[in-house]
Recover the amino acids of this structure.
């Protein structure tokens, strides 16, 4: 089964997100746990969540891949920015438990001149403060393209965060195809090699989700500009290989392409048409 979906606006609640996903032909989706720029999250309506859970079961949804706000920077130099990250993550993780067993993805952050070792240390510290033994949510570190002072520019940096986290079983990785391509992992010509490297450095069992984006920029450019599926430098045949790779099959695939609803519906249908059920 291909679990695929796009980002969906959370402004109308969970049931509305589920219905919108179905409209797009999706069976999973991503949503921002609050305004991507931060701020206060909407109160959870438990009846709405119940209706969503029923809908999600009826339509056999895959795991959701919630996204933390972009403004969250767990390894900022300023304590008040780190406090915002800590409080936001802790609150988001409580909210995630209303829809148990899903994924919460975040950008490891930018070390803003403190150096990547410091960035890694601060990010791991916050994770150790917010992860709770009783949570059913898995927190995902997203692979980043390495623009500016981003942490997570390579698999080694993600591994260094993971090894410092006490509750490792609560952690995973989300592979963003645009980011790894821009970051210097050749998923077009050597997907097997990239996955072998991931396995050696992090362990493929930690890979939980895929952000499927084409890239406007060439290999190893360390930029981060998403392009529509098949219209960028990665191309459709590489994406077809990714969704059908035996080591990746079954992972939720989330589109973060520059699109409107019609564009996402088209991309979801396209990738579904390229997915080979029989290999499973
Ligand atoms: Fe992201
Ligand atoms: Fe992403
Ligand atoms: Zn990106």
């Amino acid at each position: 089964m291909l679990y695929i979906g796009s980002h969906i606006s959370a402004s109308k609640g969970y049931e509305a997100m589920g219905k919108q996903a179905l409209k797009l032909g999706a069976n999973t989706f991503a949503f921002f746990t609050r305004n991507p720029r931060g701020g206060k999250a909407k109160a959870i309506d438990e009846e709405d969540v119940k209706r969503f859970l029923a809908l999600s079961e009826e339509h056999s949804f895959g795991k959701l891949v919630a996204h933390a706000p972009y403004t969250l920077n767990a390894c900022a130099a300023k304590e008040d920015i780190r406090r915002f990250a800590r409080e936001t993550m802790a609150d988001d993780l409580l909210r995630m438990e209303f829809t148990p067993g899903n994924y919460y993805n975040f950008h490891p952050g930018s070390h803003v001149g403190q150096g990547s070792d410091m960035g890694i240390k601060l990010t791991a510290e916050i994770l150790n403060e917010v992860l709770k033994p009783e949570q059913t949510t898995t927190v995902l570190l997203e692979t980043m393209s390495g623009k500016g002072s981003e942490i997570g520019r390579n698999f080694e940096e993600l591994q260094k965060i993971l090894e410092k986290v006490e509750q490792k079983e609560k952690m995973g990785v989300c592979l963003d195809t645009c980011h790894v391509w821009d970051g210097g992992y050749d998923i077009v010509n050597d997907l097997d090699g990239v996955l072998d490297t991931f396995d050696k450095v992090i362990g493929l069992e930690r890979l939980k989700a895929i952000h499927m984006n084409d890239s406007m920029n060439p290999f190893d450019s360390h930029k981060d500009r998403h392009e529509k599926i098949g219209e960028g430098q990665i191309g459709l045949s590489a994406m077809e290989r990714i969704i059908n790779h035996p080591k990746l099959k079954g992972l939720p695939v989330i589109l973060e392409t520059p699109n409107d609803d019609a564009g996402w519906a088209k991309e979801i249908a396209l990738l579904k048409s390229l997915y080979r059920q029989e290999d499973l």
Q: What stands out?
A: Residues 142, 176, 211, 256 surround fe (iii) ion (ligand 2) (CB under 6 Å). The chain has a mean pLDDT of 96. The radius of gyration is 18 Å.
